[in-house]
Amino acid sequence: MDPSQWIDVTVDKNHYSLDHFVIPNHYEQDVSSILIPHGVIMDRVQKLARLIVDQNDGPLVVCCILKGGHQYFADLVNCIKKLTTAHGQSVPLSLEFIRVKSYQNDQSVGVNISLTENELKDFEGKNILIVEDIIDTGKTMVALLERLQTYKPKTVKVTSLLIKKTERSNGYIPHYVGFAIPDAFVVGYALDYNEHFRDLDHICVISEHGKKAYAV
Ligand code: HPA
Ligand code: MG
């Protein structure tokens, strides 16, 4: 996707104050600002679904990258199900799940992909759409794509709700991106910090208090 097509929330420093929206009170000390309110996420997911359906041809294997991708995956699949192409065709979907783990505290600790050979064999000859929560360094996605290619899918496209603008990026850009975000650690909408904050609806910047409270 061309960067002109995604929403850049790094441009103006207009993060929302915690007072402007409802935050579960168990997280009040642990986030410093709201970067993307839940309603804006939902509206953007609708548009991404529209773009994906408009550019799709035939059945699609939608592949969720667990755990962080699950909320975006669920909302995106819901939107895609309700849409049809310009020719009135709905998109036949099948759903797959891949577990990837690469972060401890706010540091990348190398990529660990759990996939059974049986799951991978199902990809042969299929159009795959990978659904990820965030592209940070890009290392996880490049490693995953390499691994998938050995199973000969027909096409592989990637959508990530977020892409982080960071000097540590390897330059990887997905086909469909929701928002570009600043180089800060974000949580909420299923993005976690050591498994916490997945139960927060908005995408927020974690506070120093939050990093300490949930460090391992
Ligand atoms: N938040 C949550 N998970 C992540 C992030 C982030 O900022 N970057 C990579 N994985
Ligand atoms: Mg994660």
UniProtKB/TrEMBL annotation:
Reaction catalysed?
Answer: IMP + diphosphate = hypoxanthine + 5-phospho-alpha-D-ribose 1-diphosphate
Which residue ranges does the record assign to the Phosphoribosyltransferase domain? 41-193
Give the GO cellular component terms, alphabetically.
Answer: cytosol
Cell location: Cytoplasm
Q: Does the keyword Metal-binding apply?
A: yes
BP terms from Gene Ontology: GMP salvage; guanine salvage; hypoxanthine metabolic process; IMP salvage; purine ribonucleoside salvage
Q: Which domain of life is it from?
A: Eukaryota
Regions that span the bilayer:
none
Q: What is its EC number?
A: 2.4.2.8
Q: Which UniProt keywords apply?
A: Cytoplasm, Glycosyltransferase, Magnesium, Metal-binding, Nucleotide-binding, Purine salvage, Transferase
Family matches, as InterPro entries? HGPRT, Hxn_phspho_trans, PRTase-like, PRTase_dom
* Cofactor entry: Mg(2+)
Q: In which pathway does it act?
A: Purine metabolism; IMP biosynthesis via salvage pathway; IMP from hypoxanthine: step 1/1
A GO molecular function for this record? nucleotide binding
Q: Which Gene3D superfamilies match?
A: 3.40.50.2020
CDD domains reported in the protein's UniProt record = PRTases_typeI (cd06223)
NCBIfam families per UniProt: HGPRTase (TIGR01203)
Q: What family does this chain come from, according to its entry?
A: Belongs to the purine/pyrimidine phosphoribosyltransferase family.
Q: Note the PANTHER family from the entry.
A: HYPOXANTHINE PHOSPHORIBOSYLTRANSFERASE, HYPOXANTHINE-GUANINE PHOSPHORIBOSYLTRANSFERASE
Q: What is this protein called?
A: Hypoxanthine phosphoribosyltransferase
**What is the protein's species of origin?**
Absidia repens
